[in-house]
Amino acid sequence: MTMFSCSLLVVDPIADLQTLENSALPNARHVSLAGLPYRFGPSEVSVWARKRAIDIYYVDNCWVRVPVTPEELRIFLHDMGATCSELTTFSEPDFRQSLIIDADEF
After folding, report:
1. What's the rounded Cα separation, in Å, for the pair 18 and 29?
2. Strands (DSSP E) along the chain, which ranges?
3. For 8, 35, 40, 85, which has the most beta carbons within 10 A of its beta carbon?
4. CA torsion, ordered 38, 84, 45, 14, to nearest 10 deg
5. pLDDT per residue over 71-82, tens digit each?
């Protein structure tokens, strides 16, 4: 049986975005994205990111990470009909961490 996962990672700023292709990200905090369609995973996230010319980083062929700004996250949530309980926090002027959409198929 194939399972899908899609969540948001909140991490300290990353100097080298190629680091996103490593399976382990130090101090990553997972944030739930509610309301995503059933069987939503890396293919759907990749299609969304490509349409917006946002870089996609591959941990492996079934696991992608897409770094987004708070505004891009807002658009993603709107486009997918999803919600994130911490969205307002990410838009505060003093927010300095990185946001990464993390999608996996396993």
Report:
1. 19
2. 4-11, 29-31, 57-60, 63-68, 98-105
3. 8
4. -140
5. 999 999 999 999
